[in-house]
Specification:
Blueprint: E1 3-6, H1 14-19, E2 26-29, E3 47-50, H2 58-66, E4 71-74, H3 84-90, E5 93-95, H4 102-117, H5 120-128, E6 147-151, H6 155-166, E7 170-174, E8 187-188, H7 191-197, E9 200-203, H8 218-222, E10 229-232
Parallel strand pairs: 1-2, 1-3, 3-4, 4-5, 6-7, 6-9, 7-8, 9-10
Helix pairs in contact: 4-6
Length: about 240
């Protein structure tokens, strides 16, 4: 029987793993993340399933190869936690999730933006201190009076644009490859125009090593409004 060891399995996910194991793989579910300290747990398996923050380093991959591991899967879109060059050199096949619920990320981005726009952390902190006085910091623009700039208008960016549009915001976008689906929701502008006009800038682009590393740098921030909100739910590598 094909044996897969799955790292980073949260307690509430155990039932789901078994429910969707339609091919009857022999699963070993491990709550902890893969590290150099627990790498020996892969012994006796054919494949390893990871999630973010698991350490598929050159050293760990070499150990996997020595134990006969042929496949490394990750239940994430990103693969920055896997040394892909090392895996390729060792002949280990790697597979990731091409995409997942754009609504989940789009709604998170929207929530983070509104959280900052309405100064919710400040108000929450005051409430926790039993201080219910109204402060000027509690006032803000309404979304309908904001311009929202979406950088990266794929499935996630498009979904977030629709959410902000539904709240009455003016939505503009920038993408090297404009999405025809977005034309009824946002207006495409140059990156500089987007940064200078937007009250909220939300980023949804993939990290492409060697091309957009650290794209969010001092020059990027300088082009934004002084009081603008920046939301990055894409990749940390985009920030310098």
């Amino acid at each position: 029987m094909f044996k897969i060891i799955c790292f980073g399995v949260r307690p509430h996910e155990v039932e789901i793993f078994h429910q969707f194991n339609t091919y009857d793989f022999e699963l070993t579910l491990v709550e902890s993340l893969l590290t150099a300290d627990n790498i020996t747990l892969v012994d006796g398996h054919h494949a390893v399933l990871l999630r973010a923050n698991c350490h598929a380093t050159m050293t760990n991959l070499k150990y996997m190869k020595a134990q006969g591991i042929e496949y490394v899967f990750t239940r994430t879109v990103g693969t920055s936690h896997i040394d892909l060059e090392a895996a390729a050199s060792l002949g280990i096949k790697v597979a990731n999730v091409p995409s997942y619920s754009p609504n989940a990320i789009a709604e998170l981005s929207l929530t983070l933006a509104l959280n900052l726009l309405r100064n919710i952390p400040f108000t929450t902190n005051r409430t926790q201190q039993f201080d219910f006085r109204v402060d000027s910091k509690m006032f803000s623009k309404e979304v309908r009076n904001c311009t929202v700039g979406i950088i990266g208008t794929g499935k996630i960016g498009y979904t977030e644009a629709q959410l902000f549009k539904g709240l009455g915001a003016k939505v503009i976008g920038y993408d090297l490859y404009p999405n025809d689906l977005c034309t009824d929701t946002l207006d495409y502008v140059s990156l500089d125009e987007l940064l200078s006009q937007s009250d909220i800038v939300s980023i949804h682009v993939p990290h492409i090593p060697g091309e957009n590393d650290g794209m969010i740098d001092r020059a990027f921030l300088t082009k934004m409004k002084n009081d603008a909100i920046l939301i990055n739910t894409a990749r940390g590598e985009l920030q310098k």
